[in-house]
Amino acid sequence: MHAPGPMQLLLIAIVLLVLFGRGKIAGMMGEVGKGITAFKKGIKDGNEEIEKAAADTAKDVTPEKDKV
Questions:
Q1: DSSP states of 10-62 as a string?
Q2: How far apart are the C-alpha atoms of 53 and 31, rounded to whole Å?
Q3: Distance linking the first and last C-alpha atoms of the chain
Q4: 3-class DSSP state for residue 66?
Q5: Are 37 and 44 within 8 A, CB to CB?
Q6: Where on the phi/psi map is residue 3: left (φ > 0), alpha (ψ -120 to 50), or beta?
Q7: In this structure, how many other beta carbons lie within 10 angstroms of the beta carbon of residue 25?
Q8: Whether pTM exceeds 0.90
Q9: Which residue, among 54, 60, 30, has the nearest Cα to 46 in the 3D structure?
Q10: pLDDT by residue for the chain (68 residues), tens digit each?
């Protein structure tokens, strides 16, 4: 199977513009951008939670008998 050439991609883009119009396509791309941003924020928040939990468990390693 081969990748579509530039003329085929241009034809697909023209058909999509005719079917959906510029406004709908722009709106869809805006929603895709919001989704990507929310996904990245979720990944970042998850990593921060994991790092915080690891830092909390590593914070105090003094054995119970040596604590004053």
A1: HHHHHHHHHHHHHHHHHHHHHHHHHHHHHHHHHHHHHHHHHHHHHHHHHH---
A2: 33
A3: 71
A4: helix
A5: no
A6: beta
A7: 14
A8: no
A9: 54
A10: 678 799 999 999 899 888 888 888 888 889 999 999 999 999 999 999 988 888 877 766 666 666 65
